[in-house]
Amino acid sequence: MSFLDVKALDIKRWSAEPSAPYHLPELIRRLIFATTPTLEHIDFPIGASVNSGGWDGTTTVTTGTTYVPSGVCGWELGKTPGVKGKADKDYAERVKNSLGLKPVETTFIFVTPQTWTAKKKWVTEKEKDKHWKEVRALNADDLESWLSQSPAVQVWFSRLIGKRFDGLTDLDTYWQDWMESTVPPTPSQLVLAGRSRTSADVQVWLQGTSLSLTLQADSREEAMAVFTASLMQLPAADRDRYLVQAVVVTTLEAWRQLIEVGTQLLLIPLFEERDEIAGAYRRRHRVFIPSSPTDAVSSDTEPIPRIAREVAERALQAQGLSYDKAYALAWTARTSFASFRRKLAISPSLQRPIWAKPENAFSLIPALLLGAWDENEEKDREAVAHLAQLPYEQVQQGLLRWANETNPPVRLTSSTWYVSDKLDVWSLLYRFITRDQLNRLQQLVIDILGAPLPRYELPIEHQYRAELLDKRSPYSKVLRDSIANTLALIGSQDEQSLPAANITARSFASYTVTLLLRQALANPLVLRSISDLLPALAEAAPDPFLQEIHIGLTGEDPVVMTLFEEQPGLFHASSHHAGLLWALETLAWKPEYLGYVFTILTRLTQLDPGGSTTNRPRNTLREIFLLWHPNTTAPLDQRLTLLRQLVDQAPEIGRSLLMRLLPEFRGVAENTAKPRWRDWPTTVQPTRGDVARGGEEIGRLLMKLAGSDVTQWQSLIVPLVEHASPTVFKEAIARLIELSNELTSDHDKALIWHILRQLVHRHRSHSDTEWAMWREQTDALAELLPRFEPIDIVERYAWLFDQWPALPEGQVEDEDYEALIEQTQYEALQQMHVQGDDHVLALIPTVSNAFYLGRAFAKTGLSDSRIEELLGRYLAETRSEDLFARGIADHWLRHKDRDRDWCEAVAERSKNSWSAAQLAEWFTFLKNDVRTWTKLSDYEGEVEQQYWDQFVIWGIDDVDAEQATRLLLQFNHPFKAVELLSLHEKKGGIPTQLILEALEKLYDALTPEVARQLRSYQVSILLDRLASDTVIDRISVGQLEFKFLPLTYSYREGSTTVLHKQLASSPQFFAELLSKVYKKTVDGKVVDEPVADEQDANNQDAAASMSYFQLLNSFRAVPGLGEDNYVDQDFLFTWVTEAKQALSEMGRLIIGEQQIGQMLSSSPEGDDKYWPHEAVRNLLEHEASVELEKGFEIGVTNSRGSTSRGVYEGGRQERDLVELYAGYAEVIAPTWPRTGAILRGLAGYYRRMAAYEDGEADRNQDLWR
Question: How big is the CA angle at 1159 (ends 1155 and 1161), to the nearest 5 degrees?
Answer without folding.
Answer: 115
